Amino acid sequence: MSIVQNIRKIRASIPEQVKLVCVSKFHDDATIMEAYNAGERIFGESRVQELTEKYYRLPNDIEWHFIGHLQTNKVKYLAPLVFLIHGVDTIRLAEEINKQAIKANKIINCLLQVHIATEESKFGFSPEELICTFDENIWSKFENIRICGLMGMATYTDNTEQIRAEFKLLRSVFDKLQNHPNLQDLSQFKILSMGMSDDFKIAIEEGSTMIRIGSNIFGNRNC
Ligand SMILES: *Cc1c(COP(=O)(O)O)cnc(C)c1O
Residue whose CA is closest, atom 15 of ligand 1? Predict the structure, then answer.
């Protein structure tokens, strides 16, 4: 199937209000433009240099999302260009994003990453840790960061019940934080980014509002 057909198929199987991030990492401009010409405007990249290069080459109405693990020393390159950073996984990183956002004279949209998988390699706050940061009211001091919600990745497994349980956990943390007294502006805390090519249907059943799809749109990557 072509990229356009892949997109149509995904769009037909998800509710209209769920946002689709086309994960274009490792794909070239022409490939991305096929999705763009099919109407897609949100693209996700996991490497800073790749995102910045594509940002300057491709149409400027694209909303670029950074979905990978972000190193503090690279935030400065991303700050002027990025629309949403999905993986804020430490307070130290938030400090740096806030600093670079001030320099770029903008407010940067961020999602806090929660570790829900059993694999050790996946980054993020534990649910308890994250709730603690809200109890301590840590996020309100970052005036140039807008905390828009949460992001998480389920374990890479065939066990769909395990995947479902992990998404349920993330959803429960999301609900808890939406009712947290230290969440100043509830209206902006509304994104729950969960679900990839293999598990987005389960993620949507469990309340995802934003899915990140790569291989189901563009085919296999060399990574
Ligand atoms: C690569 C990547 C995706 C897309 O994965 P697919 O399985 O190809 O859909 C989604 N989220 C993150 C954080 C990624 O790194």
Answer: 68
Whether 67 lines ligand 1, by a CB cut-off of 6 Å, is: yes
CA distances from 97 to 72, 140, 206, 213 (A): 8, 14, 30, 25
Whether the pTM exceeds 0.85: the reply is yes
The preferred substitution site among 20, 67, 210 for testing ligand 1, maximizing ligand atoms within 8 Å of CB, is 67
In the block, tokens 């019940």 appear at 161
Phi, psi (degrees; rounded to nearest 5) at 161: -70, -35
Query: CB under 8 Å to 186, separation ≥6 — which residues?
Result: 178
Phi, psi of 67 (to 5 degrees): -115, -5
Q: At which residue do the structure tokens 């649910």 appear?
A: 127
Distance between CA atoms of residues 74 and 63, nearest Å: 19
Backbone angles phi, psi at 207, to 5 degrees: 110, 10
**What is the tens place of the pLDDT at every residue in 53-80?**
999 999 999 999 999 999 999 999 999 9
